[in-house]
Structures are given as structure tokens and as C-alpha cells.
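Re: Re: C-alpha cell formats

Sure, here are both.
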Amino acid sequence: MQLKKQVHEVRDLIYIHHNNYDQYVITYGIEFKEFMESLSVKLKYLLLLKHRFNDGEFNMHTLLEFVPQEKMDVLMNDGVYGYGNFCWIDFNGIEGLNDLSGQEIAELLYLGHIKQHLKQPFYQKLRNRFAYLAHDDGWFNKVYYRELDDFYEMLGNVVGIKMSQLHTRKSLFNLRKNKPFPAVSGKTLSQISHLIKEGIVISLRNREEIKQRIEIPIWVIGDYIDMDDMYEEALKIEKNNCQAKLVYEKKTDEWKLLM
């Protein structure tokens, strides 16, 4: 099954597996643009480890290209899915980048090439919050988080964005302007942290609208690297009872979690 070609169409399924020990999260269904739009802070610079972006700036010390904040929107709209491999690490200032040792540069090159760390990819000189490693962006994403709260906040915002897009798409011929969905709070999502460590799918496509609420099922599916296998299993598991639900209450305009 050639699912990779459909990644931009399949926006209503999110797979998440959190490796607590190594501080990374593997996802399917969350693209770079969604990720960036869902962060609480704007990143100042991205050091590009693997990419095909043609408008970056060159750093002589690392011999790598980087993207300053003023060019971030250009990158976000450049169709990074088509790059194949797309890997970067954020940093706070050029001075810190120029202070990297040869060993640290070698670690970053290995990280971008193999998508695995030699040591935890958080550098005091860069003051980075993330290391973002994707193959066919949105298909297989592996992101290291310095602070896991950033992950839960990002995920909650992504759910709100996706629900707003799906609701708008469903109501194309409705003249009434649709109100965007709120984000799910990070505190709410952290209640299923134990399930996320096992590997879950949040299935927006299987959402049910019941009177004054919308219910989104969450299934525990396991630890996957091959997203073809994950997707096939997700199709099967949808027939089973889910382990949790995200519930949107229309009256209060709020999300809650049912388990």
C-alpha cells in the first residue's frame, strides 16, 4: 500500500509514541508547519542538518545552512514533505553556533544523517529546545524535547487546528462563519502520558458528534517505526473499543478527557 503519497490527505489520524528515557516523541500526521504554528514561542534560528531549502544562510564555522526568524514563514510554506529527509535543530544566536566544538558538530551531523543521537541533542551553547528529524515530513517525525510540556502544548494546539480545518471543510456551503476550535490544554493531554508511552492513535476521522459534544477516540496501538505497519494496524483497531476519548463540549467551548 503506497500510503506515503497520501500523507497530505490523511490529516485526521495522529500517531504518537513517547520514549521517555531518550526524551523523544515519534509521530505520524503532524507536519512541520503545524508544529511551528503550535509552539508557544517563536524560534529564532533553525540549523538545517538535512534539507532542500534554497533560501537559507550559510554558516562558515559549521559549513551548514541556517534559517533566521524572518525567513521562517518561507520555509514553513516550502513543501518540506518533498525534501525527503528534513532535519534541524533550533538555536538562539550566531555566537553560540560559532562556539560549537568539532565534536559537537560531528554529533549534529550524525544526528541528521542517522536520526539517532550519540548523546542527548541539547546544547548549552545553542540553548535549543528541540531536535527535529523527519522523513517525508508528517509521515515519520522524531522530535527530541528538552521540556515535555512543549510537546503537550504543541499537540493540544494541533488538535484544535485540525478540528477547525475539518469542520470548515465539512461546512463549505454553509454561509455561517465557523468558530475555530480551542486548543486542548497540555494538562488535559498529560493525563494520558502513560498511554502515549505505549503508543497511541488519536483518530479525528472517527469522531462522533452527539448532541452538544464531539467525541474523538484514542486507541493504544503500540511502538512503531514503520508507518505503513502502524497505519494498517490502525485500520484494524478502529473496530475495537477505545481506551480514552477527547470530548469537546459545545456549550462550554472546552475539551475534557474520558477514560
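Second one below.
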Amino acid sequence: MSNNQDNLETKLSDAKAVAGGMLSKDKHVSAGNQTTAVEIAKTGSVKDVILWLLAAAVLIGATLVNQYLPGYWQPANDLWVRIGIIVALFVFALLCLALTNQGRAFKTLLKDAAVELRRVTWPGKDETFQYTWQTIVMIAVVGLLVWLLDNFFNWFVGIFIG
């Protein structure tokens, strides 16, 4: 009995180690402690501040391109050139934000969310059909109750107002 229990505990600890390894691919490991996305996002550096300020300045510049750039640069009179510049500035700002600690934490969060989505058990066709009809019926019942209450309160207020 204890041999089976020891085997089960060993298998459980191995499974936890494998699951921990799957979830912590891009997380920093230091002295056996795993750094979570929240801990990464809370850390800051001078590089992060500079990148955040640069991204903010570039996004503000992107909002001003359409109004001011055609007056200073002849090719910017073309609509597609302005759209291309705005898109390029937006992509540059996103790249700057991705290079911050918060951006790395967001990428880790997205990867963890993708792992969790693979574990989701999605409903089948019959379950979806059943839940859809239940939802439609409940919406109709609640709509009818709200309509009845509205008519009642209109009638009730009409008695006092005259």
C-alpha cells in the first residue's frame, strides 16, 4: 500500500515539475524561485522610463502628423503617405513598449493565457444549441417582466398625476 502511495506521490511531483516547466518557459528563474509576470511588471529601470517617454512622444507625434506635416514636407500631402507614417509611428511606439519590463510581462501573460486556452473544454453543438435557446427564453421572460413593471408604474404614476 505504501509503495503504491510513494509511486503516486512521485508521479504527482514529476507532473507538477513538468507543468511548472511548461508554464515558466519565458519566466526568469533565480535561485529556484520563479518570477511571475506581475513581479516582472513591477520592476522598473531608467531604460523603462526612457522607453515609456519615447513611446508617449511618438504617439503624440502620430496624432499631429495629419495636421502639421503637410505644411513642412511636400510628400506628406498624399493621404497614403500620412497613413503610412502614422502606422509606422504607432508600430515604433508598440515596439518601444514591448522592450520595457511591463511589455515583457505582457508577453508572458499572453503566453500563459494561450496555455490556459488549450485546457478549456469547449461545449459541443448540442450544448451550444441548448444554452442558446435557454438564453433566448430567459431574455424574453425578463423583457416581459420589465414591460409589465413599466406599464404598472405608468398606470400608478398616472393615478397621482391625473
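The chain is about 80% helix and 0% strand. The chain has two domains: 26-120, 125-162.
- S.
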